[in-house]
Each structure stands twice: as C-alpha cells, then as structure tokens.
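Annual report, structural modelling task.

Input specification for the pyridoxal-5'-phosphate complex:
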Amino acid sequence: MARAHNFNAGPGALPDSVLVELQAAVLEFGKTRAGIMEISHRSKAFEAVLESAQARLRRLLGVPEGWAILFQQGGASLQFHVLSLNLALPGEAPAFVDTGTWSTKAYEEAQRLCQPRKAWSGKGNAYTFIPSDAELDASAVAAAPWVHYTTNNTIRGTQFHRVPALGKPLLADMSSDICSRPVDVGAHEAIYAGAQKNLGPSGVTVVLLSPWALARQAEVKAARGGLPPMLDYAVQVENNSLYNTPSTFGIFALERVLAWVEAGGGLGPMAEKNTRKADLLYSELDRSPFWRCPVRPDSRSQMNVVWRLPTEDLEERFLKEADAAGFLGLKGHRSVGGCRASLYNAVEPASVAALVAYMRDFEAKNG
Ligand SMILES: *Cc1c(COP(=O)(O)O)cnc(C)c1O
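The model returned the following structure:
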C-alpha cells in the first residue's frame, strides 16, 4: 500500500481505522448478511445507523433539545438555495457576510429567492481577513431577518474564531470546519455542512435546524404556496431524512467517523490536535520570508493553510516535487493559485511534521 500524506481540500483525508471498518462493512454489515450498500434504507439495521449518527452529532456538537438533524444530498451548494427558499420571504433582505467564494455563492442563490444584502465584502482586500462585528454594515444587519456567514473559508484560508454577536438569528455554512472544534450551536438557528471535509465522504450534507428555523420555515412555505418536497425542510424533518433514499453508505461512513471522534475524547481534544497541527505549519511559514502567508494572522484558518513562494515557477516545482515525495493535494484552489494544505481532523500531526521537514529541505535547495 502506498497511502501518502493527504492534504486534499475535499473530499479530504479519512481516518485509517475508519477506512478499514468501511472496507469490512462493504462486504458484510453486522448481522444483515449483506453489505452496507445493499440493504434497505428502511431496514432496522440502517435505522440504527441513522439514529446513531444523529445521536453522535447531538452529543459532540451539543445540539440543543428541539433541533432537527437532517442528512441531505446535493452538497452545501444545494443548501445555498434551499436555505433562502425555506427561511426567507421573497421581499425580505437577509444579510450575508461575504468572506469568499462559498459565501458569495450563498448570496447569489439568495438573489434568486429574496432581496439579500451584503453586510460586508472581503473582495476589495482579496478576502485576506475576517471582519469584526463592528466592521459589518449595521443598517444591512438591522434590516435582515437573519445573517449568514461561512465559519471557515476553505479556498482563502480564513476562519472565524468567534461567533458573531449581532442580535440577529445566525445561519452558518460550517462545511470545512464542523466538528474540528467545539462550537456554540445554540448561538445559531441553522447550520449546514457538506460531509466531505471533516465528516466522511461526499454525498451527505448535515443540516441542523432550530425550533425558530422550523417555525419560520412553516411561515415561508405558506407564503410561497408550498415547496418541492425534496427541498422542503418540513418534509425532510417529518420523514427523518428518509423521504427518498438517502446516501446510506455516506451516512454510515459519517457515523463511523463520528464514533472515531468520540473515541478520541470529542471536540476538545480534536481542537487541541488541530491547533497543534496548524501552529506547526504557520510557524514554518513565519520562520522564513521564502514562504508568504497572505492571511492576516488573527484570521488564519486551522483547517486550510494557504501560502505562496517567491515565484510561480518555484511554486510549480514545489508542488510537483511534493507530490512525488508523498504529499498530496498541496495545490491551491484553481481560482487563487499558490499552495494550500488542508489539515482536517483525520490528518495526523506526524503528516504535518513531515511536510514541514520537506519544506525546509526544499527551501535549503531552492531558497
Ligand atoms: C466545499 C465547500 C462547499 C461546497 O460543498 P459541496 O458539498 O461541494 O456543495 C461549500 N462551502 C464550504 C465552506 C466548503 O468548504
């Protein structure tokens, strides 16, 4: 086997021990006499998987009583649309904090459905930092029924290190940092996350909805004269994510990943591990002017670390040689270039230490 150090941005690394469990379950799952992909989503065996996945999320994230936990398809990208479809009236102006590509897309989907406003845009500063609450447009926030933000900006390498306190219901895209650290779920009204960064394979999207969100959804649904059932949060809640066939394998894999997180002590220890990994890499970036991290220090992401080299030629050589040396996925997003290491939960500190050693070696030869 030649499993390299995996810094892929998404789908990203999964824990080795979970992959071994999945491998076995593909052939034979529990007492079902069939593989996990070959049993009914309405069977007792799968029902137990679904319930366990929900219970683990509830425990790990501290999801308050009364919240719905859904497993949807279509990725975070479908939620960009579904969120505004279910939670904003056509004439309303929800506010969006635009910290990069994904929040821009959430805003653009809202434009099809209501009258959104940007409470802030990082476009003018190349999305290199996270705004403070005071930097947001107070009138846009005041006029909004809710405010949407992206907790971690996978492409730009920035991350909120606080929950904004705006006196408005908060909706968050947590795709790339969910379960990487403790989070105050109760300070939000809706949270969604594609699974393929920290929770499992692509094809499953976690959606958490508060009682406030569920009540508002009923109001919006009535005002819109009903919604397509697959895009209707109420239908999904009533059917416990089983209105149609969900990604059964994806939910099983997610449940196993969450079991792995719980066995490791939960989100406190996970956050410590993630901080340790990020510190290791950022110290290297700060050590030498050969590397340049464009992100303002207070806004640096612990999940996606981005940096540049002195020239694009050097970047190209670095990426090519790193790949050959066993470091996968270090190429920055195609929209921004440069380098990026994604340090999701399953990436071990030893992989980051090996990367740093490799970088020092590369600098010694090329600096
Ligand atoms: C990856 C990502 C998305 C897009 O997810 P899909 O599941 O591919 O739709 C959206 N938001 C953030 C923050 C992401 O990291």
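The chain is about 40% helix and 15% strand.
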